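Q: Hi! First time doing this. I have a protein sequence and I read that you can turn it into a structure. Is that right? Here it is:
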Amino acid sequence: MDSDKIIDNNKRYWNEHADFWFGTTALPEYGVNFVTENELHFFQDVAGKKVLEICCGSGHSLKYLGDRKAEELWGLDVSQSQLDHAGEYLKENGYPAKLLCASMEENTDIPTNYFDYVYSIYGIGWTTDLQGTFRKIASYLKKDGIFIFSWHHPLHYCVSWSCEERNIIEGENLIFTRSYFDESYFKMPVHDSEVILCNRKISTYINTLADAGFVIERMVEQNDRETLENQEDRSTKARKGRMCPISMCFKARKQ
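A: Yes, that's right. Below is the predicted 3D structure, encoded as structure tokens:
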């Protein structure tokens, strides 16, 4: 698929549905049914630090770091509707922020060798150029700067309930409905529209990080304890979360 068409399609979706996603999947949360920053402590002390969020959405993660005394808040998002929400939300909470409307694949006026942290909460997987995006992020960071990102675990898109077992309480089974090795783009219906995504292997993320000059400090694929232990929750998402990871999160350092 043509990358410009993919970006335009997904941009249109986010502009039309920004209200629905206001405040969702933001720090301290890294993803659905996933351990949070309260357990991981990936950011440690951000007081006096310069931070940039890729796919900043409605600005809630930026506020979270502003509450912890980050010195400069920067955000990048492809959706102007999302940025309008973020600007208003951050202003209401007393935080000036520099917000840029562009795709993460574009060349922008973001300064290089400048940030202590660049991060993305459930946003990095939207890129159509993983290698180029990681290299741009590396250029934004100071030496020894930290890159943190979370996204859907690739198994999440590969497995689902078998029809025969979907409504059975005991003896549940997940089946592969998509090859783990298939990294082609696919269309996924969401609300009254559709988005276009690519399901990349974990090794693809690891090798691309290495090629961009990052050293991985931690990779986490741990669902939260409540999901793993609450056997009474029979929702499809909770049942799946007790059998395979739903999300993943990386912390990497620029060499």
